[in-house]
UniProtKB/TrEMBL annotation:
CDD domains: DEP_RGS7-like. GO terms for molecular function: GTPase activator activity. This is DEP domain-containing protein. Transmembrane segments: none annotated. GO terms for cellular component: cytoplasm; neuron projection; plasma membrane. One of its GO terms (biological process) is regulation of G protein-coupled receptor signaling pathway.
Length: 217
């Protein structure tokens, strides 16, 4: 289902969350961003989990538990993505590094996660890793091959082109974009065993979200 098909009740929640995202990215009063090193790669505009956690807690005047819960929900909805452990869609209040997802991929944009796009992503990953995909990804890859077989040549062509273009990017840009893409598909094609956050919407609202509604209503 697209986000649009999941009901209008979901939209006020995401609009409110996105108002907070705009504040968080304010260069003067938002979360501190700077170039951070991951192994030997310098990643610009990175944030530490502890800075995100402290900012949320102070801005909304909520407890550390509520701030941690809200921070994790922000990541699970795809507004912020982890740079070091893409599969862990939770906020770690330590030196773990994160980046803001580009607004183009924010939920209210209703950018549909199409099968063709996912197939291209998997095909590109398959090329990059020389056939080493996770089991659930292999299943999706094979199913998509059958489902959109009529355009599979296009999928492979696009995957090869994106892979080639990616290799021409700077190492830091390549690393950050790779994490961004992984996080996007973890949210929109949730692996078995992970909670599909996008299915819940307002049913998952807890005290921190009431603070958000109060602030931006």
């Amino acid at each position: 289902d697209t986000l649009h098909e999941q009901g209008r009740d979901w939209q006020p929640f995401t609009w409110t969350l996105e108002a907070l995202m705009v504040e968080m990215q304010d260069p003067n009063s938002g979360v501190k961003m700077q170039t951070q090193k991951i192994m030997i790669t310098s990643i610009p505009h990175a944030m530490m989990g502890s800075d995100i956690f402290q900012w949320i807690m102070q801005r909304l005047q909520i407890s550390d538990e509520e701030a941690l819960n809200l921070g994790s929900q922000i990541i699970k909805y795809g507004y912020i993505y982890p740079l070091q452990d893409p599969k862990n869609l939770t906020l770690r209040p330590d030196s773990s590094l994160y980046r803001f997802q580009t607004p183009y991929f924010w939920p209210t944009q209703q950018w549909a996660a199409e099968d063709t796009d996912y197939a291209i992503y998997l095909a590109k990953k398959n090329i990059k890793r020389k056939g080493v995909l996770e089991e659930y990804e292999k299943e999706h890859y094979n199913l998509l091959n059958k489902k959109i077989n009529h355009k599979w040549d296009f999928v492979i062509m696009q995957a090869k082109e994106q892979y080639r273009t990616g290799k021409e990017r700077k190492k830091e840009d390549r690393y950050a974009l790779d994490c961004q893409e992984k996080a996007y598909w973890l949210v929109h094609r949730t692996p078995p065993g992970m909670q599909d956050t996008l299915e819940y919407g307002l049913d998952r609202v807890t005290d921190p979200f009431h603070c958000l509604f109060w602030l931006y209503s």
